[in-house]
Amino acid sequence: xxxxxxxxxxxxxxxxxxxxxxxxxxxxxxxxxxxxxxxxxxxxxxxxxxxxxxxxxxxxxxxxxxxxxxxxxxxxxxxxxxxxxxxxxxxxxxxxxxxxxxxxxxxxxxxxxxxxxxxxxxxxxxxxxxxxxxxxxxxxxxxxxxxxxxxxxxxxxxxxxxxxxxxxxxxxxxxxxxxxxxxxxxxxxxxxxxxxxxxxxxxxxxxxxxxxxxxxxxxxxxxxxxxxxxxxxxxxxxxxxxxxxxxxxxxxxxxxxxxxxxxxxxxxxxxxxxxxxxxxxxxxxxxxxxxxxxxxxxxxxxxxxxxxxxxxxxxxxxxxxxxxxxxxxxxxxxxxxxxxxxxxxxxxxxxxxxxxxxxxxxxxxxxxxxxxxxxxxx
Amino acid sequence: xxxxxxxxxxxxxxxxxxxxxxxxxxxxxxxxxxxxxxxxxxxxxxxxxxxxxxxxxxxxxxxxxxxxxxxxxxxxxxxxxxxxxxxxxxxxxxxxxxxxxxxxxxxxxxxxxxxxxxxxxxxxxxxxxxxxxxxxxxxxxxxxxxxxxxxxxxxxxxxxxxxxxxxxxxxxxxxxxxxxxxxxxxxxxxxxxxxxxxxxxxxxxxxxxxxxxxxxxxxxxxxxxxxxxxxxxxxxxxxxxxxxxxxxxxxxxxxxxxxxxxxxxxxxxxxxxxxxxxxxxxxxxxxxxxxxxxxxxxxxxxxxxxxxxxxxxxxxxxxxxxxxxxxxxxxxxxxxxxxxxxxxxxxxxxxxxxxxxxxxxxxxxxxxxxxxxxxxxx
Lengths: 378, 378
Description:
2 copies of one chain form a homodimer.
Chain A: E1 4-8, E2 14-18, H1 19-24, E3 32-33, E4 38-39, E5 53-60, E6 65-71, E7 78-82, H2 83-88, E8 117-119, H3 120-125, H4 127-139, E9 142-146, H5 154-162, E10 173-176, E11 194-197, E12 209-216, E13 220-221, E14 224-228, H6 229-239, H7 241-249, E15 251-258, E16 266-273, E17 275-277, E18 283-286, H8 304-319, E19 325-327, E20 333-338, E21 342-346, E22 349-350, E23 358-364, H9 366-377
Parallel strand pairs in A: 8-9
Antiparallel strand pairs in A: 1-2, 3-4, 5-6, 6-7, 9-20, 10-23, 11-21, 12-20, 12-23, 13-22, 14-19, 14-21, 15-16, 17-18
């Protein structure tokens, strides 16, 4: 009953194109706009493809085209396809969905003193270096940029090189320092330690890549802590599959309410599982932040203990000395983090009034970084 | 074996607080920062809550507090809780996850000439009207704003009233007109019809609310078509549950490659199921755009026909005359659409060289609209 057109290729293999597939991808001027390379079907009638049936099919060797005549397709009676187009679609489905063009390299403490390092100015001036940086962020999820001027504005300059800043309730970029007055919203702007987390989990639409530019480090302490959340999740999956399931199934409610200097009041609430899976079951996103985690739980009451145990075990993997890397970002350096994967925190610090720790941060979304990578590739 | 503290309330009901829950929510100055209302635990040791055990518990009636002594919790030996805090958390889990504070009102063609209407200037000047608008967008997903000046910049002005523009590869705002030269990326900037779709599905992070301000309508045609994608999905679920499953399970690959006047080149690719479900099984997002849908399919080859049939049936519900609403946006009017729910398109149009159709569009994310709503509520 399946309506199919069989095409046998030079290598002897065959593709069976369903009629409906060829109808959907008709390249005629009513169905497809060559200028924009987009489908241009605007008439709802055409959405009833199921009836469309190929009456005749003919390959013209002179111009390498397949000519089709349709019945039961309204006023639409013919299609033709370049054989090259058919060849490019000899597999009409993806064998493997290449959501990520780069295989992720999970890492642990061997990354200490081995963070992938990039020259800031080289990225600003060299497309292939920018491309290498995006690929590194896809693969490793962390990189150290060196050679930055020690003034405000470098995060914006860098992100504009990629695309544009992803603004948030903390501004286009945000300034991490302790001189914000009394109207504080987040412990990130105090001098205590900050447990490892991913940023802005109180957004449904979590920013993709986090950049932290150190203008002035703390005199004492304020060391960065980072861990590969994907590795911790994979370890959890291997050792405690039931905990892994719990952390993919039950979300956490996050909230952040307040303001920052010169900005509007906000009250952000979002729900994320600690481990979010892709539709194909791969790990897509780690979302976790102790400081913004709400007290009320989403997990049902008979799962509360398991949920806590799962969360605890996940964090123990993240903080495992074999996994966590600790270092102190120096002035003129910027760290870039995949905010869907890498957890980051810091130790508490001391500073003097005339020399406060100062970090400028900002975000660029993965959509834009990947787009830039593809554009450079062309 | 469960370690629990039972509290019986005045109404005779009891809450059993697991020890680990009280440990996690300890309000002492090492664990919680009252200024920012955030957890301030920065020491990984504390993540090993499972061992922490309450040795003594005592309610002090004089100051309405519960005092706890801990064992097996390192140097952390005591907690105390305001009884009011415990009362506010007498249910430690959500009975119902109120992701959306407003019940959605699904709609069809009865919305014709009945679109919820708002005065643009009133929203600009009146917080309660802005609040009413966000609630309407949550509930109905569409609204008509009237009384706008007929010049560029109103989308930005309006969105800045809510929060800030969500920038995309088409700019901070985008101008829909046919006078873009030959370097066209999207059929939206031509004068043909545009099948009903949701915007920017070639972003993983799809913008939340779409605003379209009409500065000048087409002389002939260019009518807007809208349909409630959630209603179409619910109808599909009721009539063809197997099709509904397919559209939640298999993603579509979307791509948009090109540029717009004065902007950088982009090459956006993203994957979305037509119907994305929330973790609790509710419909979360409709994502569909014929013009950016790739020819290669994610659905496996033995599901291709079912996938097409499912997509077709979904679109037939969307285009059902009982569901779709058609109208012509006039100059000085702006339409707002929940881009996670409402599909929109337009009919082809004709215009004269001295009077081209001109629409300015832009986005604001749901995170920000909901944040503004909550801030106004306080």
